[in-house]
Amino acid sequence: MNRGARTTHDNITVSKGAHVSASSTTTTDVARQLGVLTDLVTPWAMRVAATLRLADHIGDATVPVEDLARRTDAAPDTVGRLLEHLAAHGVFEQDGPGRYRNTELSRRLRRDHPMTVHPWLDVEGGMGQYDIGLSALLTAVRTGQDAYTPTFGRSFFEHLNSDARRGAAYDELMATLTAWTLPEILQAYDWTTAGHVADIAGGSGALLTGLLQAHPHLRGTLVDDARAVSTATERFTKAGVADRATAVAGSMFEPLPRGADLYLVKSTVMGWGDEGAADILRRCAEAARPAGRVVVAEFLRGAPRLVPSLDLYMALLGGKERTEDEFRALGRTAGLTLRAVHPTPSGYCLLEFTADA
């Protein structure tokens, strides 16, 4: 055999783009790599630390475990063991027996950090519901259908809306994602060509607020459920754009307000299978006719993206990320023609459709 040739069993894939040669790697190295890939304890320990807001309670000080347990209403012994485990992974730093301080890594768990990951890790928040839902991933893979609803007795969004705190946390999560991606969304598309933007399923209004602040000529309408409308209205007022923004209660599966020249749907279509996704786009097409546009902002399947695991989260709901060709076909089903695709560095793409006559 050619010395440079390698067969499939000569390599063990341990992470995307990385291969370990069986001939040059010890069993211990492979076991360590497999441990990194299969460990559930550390990811959940991170989530528990975020949910208890340990990094917030530590702040810029060194804090005893007993104080942290009292502030979080948790058991001192178990809090100490949690911190000891995370300190071994460099998340927190032990500074004397039973005393811990933050590291650069744990500071990202603080809610006041400009690039906080807290909303993504809070077990009691919206993303926490996704994480808990991963127990149904086997069912999703086997069936290709929504596995969350049959496993938990109600849909993911019904679960969110049943608890005000959880729903608000999900809105915060989406607002955090918007904050990360807003600058490139503003740059990727020529928003000066629109006068009135309707943000469909716009949540707490973070995206629409950002658009209106960046473009004083724009007017905006947000459509979402009553809880989101209340939050968005408050955001518009605080941001000083309330004179140009309106939030109305409605469903993306029902007739949408007409009159906007651009209907924006961000991070929404991916949560639905083809039938539901087509229904959403069909409602947008109806409202946009005769001369309006529909812009879908999502990650494209197969492209580098900010959250590589997102597609499997969507699989839990029966949804999926889509390729450009799949979006083109989906738009055609909904009465839309794909005119342009505007990529961004994070992997978000703005897909611009026009409504067919």
From TrEMBL:
Residues 40-109 form the O-methyltransferase dimerisation domain. The keyword S-adenosyl-L-methionine applies. It comes from Streptomyces corchorusii (Streptomyces chibaensis). GO terms for biological process: methylation. GO terms for molecular function: O-methyltransferase activity; protein dimerization activity. Keywords: Methyltransferase, S-adenosyl-L-methionine, Transferase. Residues 137-335 form the O-methyltransferase C-terminal domain. This is Methyltransferase. The lineage of its organism: Bacteria, Bacillati, Actinomycetota, Actinomycetes, Kitasatosporales. SUPFAM superfamilies: S-adenosyl-L-methionine-dependent methyltransferases, Winged helix' DNA-binding domain. It comes from the Bacteria. Pfam families: Dimerisation, Methyltransf_2.
